[in-house]
Amino acid sequence: MRMSNNGGRNKSVAIGDLVVTVKELTVGEIGQWLDDKLTPGDEMVQDPLLSLMPVGDMVLGDVMRMTDLTREHIDDMTGSELEQVSAVCKEVNTSFFGLAATLTLAGKAALDQHLKH
Q1: Who contacts 78 (Cβ-Cβ below 8 Å, separation ≥6)?
Q2: Which of 27, 53, 103, 114 is most deeply buried (CB count within 10 A of its CB)?
Q3: Which 3-state string (H, E, C) describes 12-49?
Q4: pTM higher than 0.85
Q5: Nearest 5 degrees, angle CA 90-CA 94-CA 98?
Q6: In terms of Cα–Cα distance, which of 51, 61, 58, 116 is closest to 91?
């Protein structure tokens, strides 16, 4: 795995002959991600693999959101290759994963509180 930094916002990772660009999500893109998670739409119906297949701490659709990977690229990749890309996604998008962890904890707390009543 070879990585190069492109101006601090993007990082490239070489997976075999394929160079994948991982981008840091903007606040607006994180907001759109939240909207998409809270109101699942056609992506789940058209391609449940994107919403359900875990890759590291995220699902395949999240990896696609943070990279320039297409479905065709992903279809040709192995699980270990996707894990390498996922690790770079996590490195570049620490704010995203911090927010995801906070939301998970808040959701669990709300569920616990609801179940007590």
Answers
A1: none
A2: 53
A3: EEEECCEEEEEECCCHHHHHHHHHHHHCCCHHHHHCHH
A4: no
A5: 110
A6: 58
